[in-house]
Structure formats: structure tokens, C-alpha cells
Amino acid sequence: MAEGTRVAHVTRTTKETDIDITIDLDGTGVTDIQTGVPFFDHMLDAFGRHGLFDLKVRAKGDIEVDAHHTVEDCGIVLGQAIAQALGDKRGIVRFGNSFVPMDESLLLAAIDISGRGQLHYAVDLPIQIIGTFDTSLAKEFFIALASNAGLTLHVRSLAGENAHHIIEAAFKAAGRALCQATRIDPRIANVLPSTKGAL
């Protein structure tokens, strides 16, 4: 698939949320995020900008209950959009990794576009709430993203004291790792990067 054509638009409506996401894997990091959860908007903005994805997110959820359904369902829909935009996956690099420092924090994200959606998450957070955002929801987002995009995703904190820095570095690292993994390598433009012939 030629670069510049890997765009997907996915919507999902339930009794809890109404999500509409568009992603261009070959963008320049232009983002337009509105979820009703300000800290999460900031994280998705970081993910898109540092992954160089053009990303538009519109989400309405039952945030009067809490942000859980909105954050998780955005992960589901974003994962589905990534999978759709990847198409047949021919020519992709497949693997990507990124170390991102943010002041005292250092995060690693490593991705294999394996088709086997799974998250391995080792992130220690010193507090549970940032503003009104439950920090455990970062993991819920990455679970949903990995499962629905078909990613093997490792997110690991190597250092950190400030929860905001840790989570933000995690989103930036995941975006940068996914950017690497989704690139088209012209040497294998029509080849599926798998010894078994399937991803």
C-alpha cells in the first residue's frame, strides 16, 4: 500500500460512549482531540504529535460516572482504526521501539505488529489521580489499543517520580514506536514481514 493512502475512519456507539476517530498513519502529527477528559486529550495529542499521525478524536461518554468507559472505548476505536489503516500490512517495518525521557522519567515502548494483540505493562505510578484522571486508566487504554490493533505492546518505566511525566512519556514512547513499526520499507514494499506468511 502506498504511503499517503493509509487513512481510516471508525465510529462506535454504545449505551456508554459515542466515539469517532480518524487516523492517517502517514501524517505530520496534526491532532484535533476532544474527549471531555482534559488530561486524556493531552495524552492523545502527545501520542499523535510524536507518532506523526494525523489524528482526529471526538468522544462523548458517561464521564459523570467516571472517565473509564471513554478512555477504554477510545482505545478500542483507535486500535480498530490503526488496524484498518494498516491494510494488508505488506511492506511495513513491523517492529518499533522508543525510549522517551521526560525530566526524571524514562519510558520504553516496544511494538510488534504481530496480529496477536497483547499488552505487557510495567509502569509504577506514585499517585492514583492526576487532576480528575485516574492514572490506572492509562493501562486500560493501552490494553484496548493493543488488543484491537493487533499489537504486541510493551510499556515499561525505567525511572520516574512524577506521575504526569511518567504517563506522558509512555504515550509519547508508544506513538514513536508505532511510527517506526508502521513505516513502509521500500525494499520489501510488497512483502509481508513474516516467516510464516501471516500477521
From TrEMBL:
Its EC number is 4.2.1.19. It is an enzyme of class 4 (lyase). It comes from the Bacteria. GO terms for cellular component: cytoplasm. Keywords: Amino-acid biosynthesis, Cytoplasm, Histidine biosynthesis, Lyase. Its main location: cytoplasm. It holds the Pfam family IGPD. This is Imidazoleglycerol-phosphate dehydratase. It comes from Denitrobacterium detoxificans.
